[in-house]
Amino acid sequence: MRIRGRTAAFIAVTGAMVLGVAATIGYSVGTGRDPSRTVTWWVPNWDSEIATELVAEFEAQNPDLSVEMVETTSDTMANKVSVALDSDNPPDVITELSSRTRTYIAKGALSDLSDMYGPDMPRSDFIPGALEAVTDGAATYAVPYRWDCVALIYNKDLFAAAGITEPPATWADLLADARKLTSGDVTATAWPMSGAAEDLVRRYLGFALSAGATIEHGVPRMDLASSQAALEIVGGSVAEGWASRSSLEVDNSEVRELFINGRIAMYLGGVFDVEQHLEAGINVGTALTPGPDGPGMQTADGWGYLVPEKAKNVSGARRLVEFLSRPETMARLTMTYPARISASGDPRFHDEYREPHYEQLAEHSVPPPNDPAWVGLNPFVYSTVQAVALGQTSPADGARAIQAEADRVLGPAG
């Protein structure tokens, strides 16, 4: 299967070097290429294998244009893109996280791509939430091509050994199953408490949304009850012992390793994780995220194509984006789910392992908060979840602290 090979490629490319703004500019000048005939595309290294094939096809169909690809990596991408967009020499096309788009829109750094949507690329063909994340007012500033979220991943063998026949569907099920699964060297779950703040905060926020919180115009609107409910699960689970104490020392990838090594029985992860578990021979299952009385909510995020306002070749950039956004092209490039519904028909997007993730995405998710003030609040929420996990504060006190800080930073409706 193509996706298995791409998974291996993704893991192997971790050492790829990110070229900065100056290096990109220097390369363009050094080659002496005509900017009107060259399109520079910043592409994440995990997409580079298929992107290289697609660029060759694009150039064959557009012999008047040459595409120069520059690889980016997740750990430095946000800073590189921000610096590039503030400069007078940005690349022509940037693959970037959708949830960061509104920050660039606020700075006036992006071209309006609204007129690219029409009969050949109808707005109705995009999965719910994907366009909302990159639209401000009447203008849409990106074309999403990938959209995904986390759902429940569990070890069927560990569940069977604990006498559990079905994955948890509600929070009551989750707690009951967690107590049965936590025995000896195995704990029920783990959380990424030592990685990027946004990874842990997203887990917290998913449970808060399930308990009644909302996201309005990119800003989370919580209350004490929803925040406390989320803290009781994400932080309280560690303090109570049914989530691994290793949570305080691991990031997303290390949570995945705990699962592969049989140290935890379930966790919230993406479809990319499932591919690795299958390759490792794990008897893995997937399910919707449990909620208070049924399926819970998650924030969905994705990736899209940006054309900077100061791009040197806007016309060529738009032609490349149009090509990359065709359903058949979009389906080839994404490892998770294409943003266009018409690109999601391939059976590989709907096998028994992926279908729960797709249902979570299509029916039980919302776009993530992307207001810059909320992004600035993430470290406070992150440290509060950790404090609950360490037993330094209670979920109720933690909820009050988060609410007070949200009121201060986001306004009294926060």
UniProtKB/TrEMBL annotation:
Q: What protein name applies here?
A: Sugar ABC transporter substrate-binding protein
Give the InterPro entries listed for this entry.
Bact_solute-bd_prot1, SBP
- List the Pfam families: SBP_bac_1
- Name the source organism: Pseudonocardia zijingensis
What CDD domains has UniProt attached to this entry? PBP2_TMBP_like
* PANTHER family per the UniProt record, alphabetical: ABC TRANSPORTER SUBSTRATE-BINDING PROTEIN, ARABINOSE-BINDING PROTEIN-RELATED
